[in-house]
Amino acid sequence: MEARRLAADLLVQMTKAADASNRAVMADTDEASIKFAREAEQATQAVQRDTDALRPILQGLDYAAETRLLEEFGSRFAEYRPLDRNILELAVENTNLKAQRISFGPAQEAADAFRDSLAAATPSDPAKESGRVEALVATAVADVREIQVLQAPHIAESDEAAMTRMEKRMATSEAAARSALVTLGGLVQPASRPRLAAATTALDRFIGLNGQIIALSRRNTNVRSLALSLGQKRTITAACEDSLRALQDALAKREFTSTR
After folding, report:
1. Cα–Cα distance measured from residue 97 to residue 30, given in angstroms and rounded to the nearest whole number
2. Are the beta carbons of 121 and 192 closer than 8 angstroms?
């Protein structure tokens, strides 16, 4: 009876551990990721305790087949634990989510400040330079928006070569925006130069934040943890559960035979 109870609890705790780990990967806040990671580790420890408690019972009953199934599970669980630990460490970092928050928050604000600062720029000779100033302002703003547009696919991307290509496009857009600012400096009225200075400050802030986004995105912890969860971990979890179900079935047959 104790062997059957422990075998049943083993399967329950194994399922809890895998589910909590999956929730840690899918969580959308650091707090939730940490909470589910803690639950996963607690369930994993319970699996180990049940395994350690069940082994001597099966050996004492001289249940060779059941002992073999438990050892089979133990071998698979030994593969599961370091993989799951790696997944949880990646999940709680949440670098992709953090990059996304910067992109949608401070980086958006800096880009808007850049646009607003340039909107008030007045040409020194409106009759001759008005159209050119407007075109340069539009180009500079479009270049910053181009960098913004590339942030989301960069955050979601898992291929490093693809990320590198996006970063090159970002660098090209940054250079174009800065070039437009330099040209504008010689075309606007002196009263508009503080606006250009404010635009430059906003651009510097935006580019600094974009660098943070790229660094976090390159860590790719959410993407990597999800890939591991849907790939290797899913396969190993299924194998662990198969071993435990086979163990339960074997113990159930022992009960049926003893009853007869």
Report:
1. 9
2. yes
Please check whether residue 241 is in contact with residue 14, taking contact to mean a CB–CB distance below 8 angstroms.
yes
Reading the block at residue 145, the tokens are 């928006």
Q: For residue 132, give both structure tokens.
A: 């050119």
Distance between CA 229 and CA 89 in Å, rounded?
A: 12
Total residue count of the chain as it appears in this document: 260
How far is the C-alpha of 232 from the C-alpha of 18, rounded, in Å? Answer: 12
Statement: the pTM of the whole predicted model exceeds 0.85: no
| pLDDT (tens place) for every residue of the chain, 260 residues total | 899 999 999 999 999 999 999 999 999 888 999 999 999 999 999 999 999 999 999 999 999 999 999 999 999 999 999 999 999 999 999 999 999 999 999 999 999 999 999 987 777 666 576 788 889 999 999 999 999 999 999 999 989 999 999 999 999 999 999 999 999 888 888 888 888 999 999 999 999 999 999 999 999 999 899 999 999 999 999 999 999 999 999 999 876 555 44
Residue with tokens 């089979």: 72
Fold of 2-93+221-259: de novo design (two linked rop proteins) (1.20.1440)
Task: Report the C-alpha dihedral over residues 209, 210, 212, 213, rounded to 10 degrees.
Answer: 120
Q: What contacts 177, CB < 8 A, 6 or more positions away?
A: 139, 140, 143, 144, 203
Tokens of 50: 């049940």
65 DSSP β-pair partners: none
